[in-house]
Amino acid sequence: MAVSTSTPKIKVAVLGGGVAGMSAAHELAERGFAVDVYERQPVYVGGKARSVDVPFDKLLQLHDVALGTPAGAPAPDAAPRPDLPGEHGFRFFPGFYKHITDTMKRIPYGTNKQGVFDNLVASQRVLLARFGQAPLPALVNFPKTCADLETIVQDLTQANTGLTAADKKLFARNLWQILTSSYERRQQVYERQSWWDFMQTDAERHRDSLPPQAPLRPDALADIHHHLGGAAEAKPNVPFPYEIYCVGGLTRSLVAAQPKLMSVKTGGDILLQLLLLIGDPTAHTDRILNGPTNEVWLNPWLDYLTTLGVRYHHHRYATRLECDPDTRRVTAAFVRPEVGDAEERIEADYYVAAVPVEQMAQVLKNSPDLLKIDATLGFIEKLAAPATKALNWMNGIQFYLNVDVPLAPGHIICLDSPWAVTAISQAQFWPQHPLSGYGNGEVKGLLSVDVSNWFEKGLNHKTAEKCTLPEIVREVWAELKKSLTQANGECLLTDAMCVGCYVDSDIEPGTNRPVPPPIKSPFVADHNTEPLLVNTANSWSLRPESFCGVENLFLASDYVRTNTDLATMEGANEAARRAVNGIIAASGSGAPFCQIWQLHEPDVLAVLRWRDRRRFAKGLPWSDALGDLPTRLLHEANYWWQHLRRPARRPATAVTSTIS
C-alpha cells in the first residue's frame, strides 16, 4: 500500500504495543495519520508474541547440578554471540489466518517479495505423543507424497487409540451438526454451550463405565473455592480416549482454549476451518516462522513503522482516560513508566486502547466518566472478573539442547499430559539461524513448550501454579519424556541432552517487574503478570465492538468482537483493523478502509445451512434429516455444481488459503 498524506495532522495515540497496537499503528501510518504508540515493555515489542533475550549463564537447570557445560567467556578470538532466544510461547500461523498474514506481506524483509510473510514455512506433521504408547504422527495437510499416504495407513491400522465404535459415531455426528448448522444457530445457541457439554463428554464417560470427571480445578486454590461458594470434592480425574482424542485434542492444538470453557460456536468454527484446510490440496494447515520471532518478524516490523513516522514510547503503560461527558470525547490519556511514578498526560485527536482485557478493566475503573458516557463498557470489567474464568495461564518454557532432536516436522501434542503440554522442536525450521550462533555456542537444539493447564495436578501431584520454577522445569521435562517414548521403550529425550531451561519471566516476581500490577482472578495469581484471555461459553455478550459511545475512543485487542473469536494474533490484528476503520469514518479522512475477511463456509453444504436457518427461524432444533424432496434435490444439485466448478475456482482458493 502506498503511503497516503491525505490526513497528516490527525494525531492518534495507540495505548499498547502488542500485535493489536502495532497492527493499528501500521494501518494508520500507511494512511497518513500521525501515530504515537505507548508500550509497557522497556525494550521489546509485540506483547505476548515477543521473543526475549536469555543470557546463557542465567539458564535454569533440570537438577541442582548443571547438566551442560558451565557458562563461560568465549574464546579470545571468538566473536561475541547474541543471547539465546526465549519465547512467551511458541508461534504458529494456521492457514485460515488472513488478517495478520496480509499485514506481514507489507513488512519489508531483505529481498523477500512478500516481506516477512515469506519467513513462514509449512509444517508437515503433528505428533500425538502418548503415555505408555509410541507417539502417533498425523498429517496436517492434504496428502501429497507416498510418505503421507503411509502415515495415513499407519494411523488407520496401528493407532491403538482405544476409541470405541460409539465414540467415533458420536464424534462424527457432532462434527456434521456443526458443519450443517446455520450461522444464526451457532451465534445464538452454540455460543451459550461449552465444547465439553456439546461433545457429550460426561455422558460418553458414563457409557464407557468410567469414574466421573473431576471439577475443572479440583482443590487447586482454596480461595477460589471460597469465591465460588465452597470447596469442591476431588474426584477421580483420569482422561479417557474420547476425551483425549475427540474433545481435548482440538483445544490443546489451539492452546488458547479449554474444553470445559470454550463455546461450541468458537470451537466448531475453528475446527471447521482446520478440516477445510486439511481437505484442500493447495493449502497449508499450519505454518511456523523460520527464525526467532523478534528477528524475522517483530524487529523488522518496528523498523518499518519507524520509517512510516510512527513514534514508539517504551516503558509506558496506560493508567486512565480523561473524558468530557458533554462532548462525549476523550480529552487526554495518562501513562506512567512504573507503579508509583508520576503520570504523563497524552493528548491526541483519537485514541486506540490496544491493551489486554485485565489492564483495560483497570483503566475503566480509574476513568469513571467513561462509564457515564457508555455504560456498556462496564461489560469489559465483568469479562475480566473472576466469575467468567476468561483469564488463564498459558506460558512458555524453552529447553536448550546440546544436540538437535527434530522429533517431528511440526507441533507435538502431549495428549496425556496433566499440564496440557504442547511443544515444537525449533532448530529444523531455523536453518538460517543456527542455535550454535547464540549463547556460548553449545546449544544445538531448542524444544519450545507451552503449558496450558497450570491448575491440574501433574505427575508430581502438584499444580504448576503452586510449583517453584525448578519444580515446573522438572515436571514439564518428565511429562515430555513420558510422552516421547518409542515402541521399544526408548525415550527420545535424555537428561544429558539438556543444557539449560528458560521459563517465561512473567511467572515469577523479581525476574520481570509487574507493570501494571496483575488483577485478582481465579486464573490469575500475583506471580503471572500476563495471563491469556481464553474463549468461554456465553462471553460474546460481554465483549465490545471496536467502537463505543465515546466518539474518539476505539478498542483494539483480542477481547473485541471479531470473526476469529479467539485470543490469537489473527484476532488482535482483525480488531485493530476494525478500530482503524472506525477512526477513518469518524475523521472523514477519505482514506481506504482496512479489509476484513469472514471465516470460510463450505459452499457444498450451503443448502443444508440454508435449511437449518429456516428451521431456526421457526424455533426448531437442528435435524440431520434432509426433509422434503425439493430440499434433497436442491442439496444434490448444489453438490454437483460445486464439484463441477471447483477446477475453475482452484487458483482463487490457492490465493486465499495459502497466501492471504
Automatic annotation (TrEMBL):
Pfam families: Amino_oxidase (PF01593), NAD_binding_8 (PF13450)
High-level lineage: Bacteria, Pseudomonadati, Bacteroidota, Cytophagia, Cytophagales
Superkingdom: Bacteria
UniProt-recorded name of the protein: FAD-dependent oxidoreductase
InterPro entries referenced in this protein's UniProt entry, alphabetically: Amino_oxidase, FAD/NAD-bd_sf, Zeta_carotene_desat/Oxidored
Protein species of origin: Hymenobacter bucti
Domain Amine oxidase, residue spans: 308-584
